[in-house]
């Protein structure tokens, strides 16, 4: 399913998740309601990274996670003012302290970037510039099937684009949900408009 979206044949019904269904991996500086949306303010120096190239371990990300079984997909939609180096938001997939994935947008090298970090003891990082996404509503979709997690994203109502395909043990217990980090400043607030779960994508392509 190249454009993403819920697979109609799956027995798992798509539904909105209540914010109360998640747990924080690290509590943010502040959380507030805005109608059905959730406003999350990051703590300065919050981040997720393990060792590679930089030599440090950061595990202070603000992720509101809930279980994601094999055969399911989760989406988060959000807006934010990403203007300082490494401001970021998206979705976080957590198996353990040493195994996780974060995917979404990040302000780096003077532009908004779309990318992912996949961590199996050591982190990697891949990005591509999306300056045209600044100020838009962004949706990140994480689909789990077999031994893989497929990450897609889009701005507004445009078609989903593939961000990453990563290995995930089908026996692993994984949690997924909205993510905010602000490695270099205080005051980053991201507005999460929706959090949904439903069936995994019917196909990789």
Topology:
Blueprint: E1 15-16, E2 23-24, E3 30-34, E4 37-41, E5 48-50, E6 57-59, E7 62-67, E8 72-80, E9 88-96, E10 99-108, E11 111-120, E12 122-123, E13 126-129, E14 138-145, E15 148-155, E16 161-167, E17 175-181, E18 189-199
Antiparallel strand pairs: 1-18, 2-7, 3-4, 4-18, 5-6, 7-17, 8-14, 8-18, 9-10, 9-17, 10-11, 11-12, 11-13, 14-15, 15-16
**CATH top level label:** Mainly Beta
- In the CATH hierarchy, the third-tier topology is known as Jelly Rolls
Helix segment count? Answer: 0
**Global structural class:** mainly beta
* Total domains: 1
- Which bin fits the share of residues in helices? under 10%
State Rg: 15 Å
**Annotation, overall tally of beta strands:** 18
Shape verdict: globular
Which range does the strand content fall in? Answer: over 45%
- N to C succession of SSEs: EEEEEEEEEEEEEEEEEE
Main sheet: strands, sense, barrel: 8 strands, antiparallel
Mean pLDDT: 94
Flag low-confidence runs. none
Multimer state:
single chain
What is the CA-CA span between the terminal residues?
5 Å
- The CATH architecture can be named as Sandwich
């Amino acid at each position: 399913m190249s454009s993403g979206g819920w697979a109609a044949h799956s027995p798992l019904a798509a539904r909105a998740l209540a914010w109360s269904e998640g747990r924080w991996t690290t509590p943010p500086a502040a959380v507030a309601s805005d109608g059905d949306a959730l406003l999350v303010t990051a703590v300065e120096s919050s981040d997720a990274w393990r060792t590679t190239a930089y030599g440090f371990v950061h595990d202070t990300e603000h992720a509101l996670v809930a279980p994601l079984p094999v055969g399911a997909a989760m989406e988060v939609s959000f807006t934010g003012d990403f203007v300082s180096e490494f401001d970021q938001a998206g979705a976080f997939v957590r198996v353990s302290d040493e195994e996780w994935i974060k995917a979404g947008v990040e302000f780096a090298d003077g532009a908004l970037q779309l990318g992912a970090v996949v961590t199996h003891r050591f982190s990697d990082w891949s990005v591509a510039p999306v300056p045209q996404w600044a100020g838009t509503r962004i949706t990140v979709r994480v689909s789990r099937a077999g031994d893989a997690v497929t990450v897609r994203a889009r701005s507004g109502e445009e078609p989903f684009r593939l961000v990453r395909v990563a290995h995930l043990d089908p026996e692993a217990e994984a949690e997924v949900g909205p993510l905010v980090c602000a490695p270099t400043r205080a005051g980053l607030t991201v507005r999460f408009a929706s959090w949904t779960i439903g069936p995994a994508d019917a196909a990789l392509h």
